[in-house]
Amino acid sequence: MAFRDLLGAARVISEPTSVLHGIFDASVASGHELLLFDNVIETPSHKVAVNLLTRPRLCEALSIAPEDFIDLLGWAMSNPEIPEMVTNAAVLECPQEEVDLTLFPIPHHWREDRGRYMSASVIIAEYDGVRNMSFHRQFLRDPSHVVARLVPRHLRTMTMSAREKGEKVPIAIINAPDPVVLLAAAMSFDHNIDELTIAASLHNKIHGRKLELVTLANGISVPANAEYVMWGSITTEDDDEGPYVDITGTVDDVRQEPVIEIDGASHRMNPIFHALIPAESEHKTLMGLPRAPTIKDAVSKVCECLDVHMTEGGGGWLAAVVKIRVNAEGDARRAIEAALAGHRSMKMVTIVDEDIDITDPVRVEWAMMTRWQPDSDSIILSGQKGSSLDPSRNEDGLTAKIGIDATIPWGADKKPFTSVQ
């Protein structure tokens, strides 16, 4: 299964469109429909796709019921699988004779951004016997260099360890692999886990066949059916990265971030570039959906957890609604504590009963207004480690967090709390 196989429902845009704000403007005008641009001015032999990976479109494309999706991701985390190595790969069909990333349809979406960015491209790195696959936005500095924002997680730790020895980190950057690879790359773990083994498990479960990898010239293995691949290394040099409109819709800071030098690049025949638009639904799905099974697993250890939804208003990252079945007094309070521990970047969690549609913010607010007393049904934690995506955190990176118990009070007659709508 390849990224291009999931674009059958896309509306094709044949009007000449520029990577410099044109793709962004057309998406906004369409209400962020699933779009496929086949007449890109700067790169006429390349196509561009946007807005595929919203939760409803992803479930439809992969033939997965929305209510089963979180459990499937959770299952994959517990059942990693070794990918299959191959020697021939579609992604290596069209190697560049001389590296020039400006010939790829890397977009400049928001006018507030520093320039052209890869926002859906995934970095695969191997160093000191550890492999990591993760999302990091990449600013196109020049034809053979990008500057990547490395947040304080595994890849940054790997990079800092290499720099202490004066060494580079060999990496590959892939764009538009099968979406299960993107979901696996978006997962975040407290310890080192090879995310490609999670992707392989999902691929076999959903598609009924092994995930195939091919090894590049620098020794990094990548999904064979990705649309684009670039390979090189994270250097010991830093450069300006940002400003950039991040998932919350606010403009992130300019920082000194690692420079990646690209030694080689290739793509499939008639390639399709995945040009994710930051702060829109596709971004929030990729960020938030893989966190839901982690939260559900944590809450399930203390009560019966039915579902988890990372909210749009929280950027798919900072807030969640958790549906539980209350079986004992104190279940909601225990769920709050477990959920906040299960996703430490989260700032707010709301716990609701099984009759509430957690994807509907109106129904969630209704549950709060009819079942929640702020003074007795809230947990407020001060001085907590916050997310770098939250501009309201203090200068030490700390924030307050809140848990809201919007379940029917324990032991109460449920009839007065039950909606007839």
Q: Distance N terminus to C terminus?
A: 42 Å
CATH architecture of the largest domain: Roll
Number of domains: 2
CATH topology of the largest domain: Pnp Oxidase, Chain A
* Shape estimate: globular
Can you identify the CATH superfamily of the largest domain? Electron Transport, Fmn-binding Protein, Chain A
User: How many H/I helical runs?
Assistant: 10
The CATH class label of the largest domain is Mainly Beta
Brief summary:
With 421 residues, the protein is of the alpha+beta class. It has 2 domains: 82-269, Pnp Oxidase, Chain A (Roll), CATH 2.30.110.10; 287-417, UbiD C-terminal domain-like (3-Layer(aba) Sandwich), CATH 3.40.1670. It is 24% helix and 29% strand.
Report what the structure shows.
By secondary structure, this protein is of the alpha+beta class. It folds into 2 domains: 188 residues, Pnp Oxidase, Chain A, CATH 2.30.110; 131 residues, UbiD C-terminal domain-like (3-Layer(aba) Sandwich), CATH 3.40.1670.10. The protein contains 10 helices and 23 strands. The strands form 5 sheets. Strands 5, 6, 7, 8, 9, 10, 11, 14 and 17 form a 9-stranded antiparallel sheet that branches. Strands 19-20-21-23-22 form a 5-stranded mixed sheet. The model has no long low-confidence stretch (mean pLDDT 93).
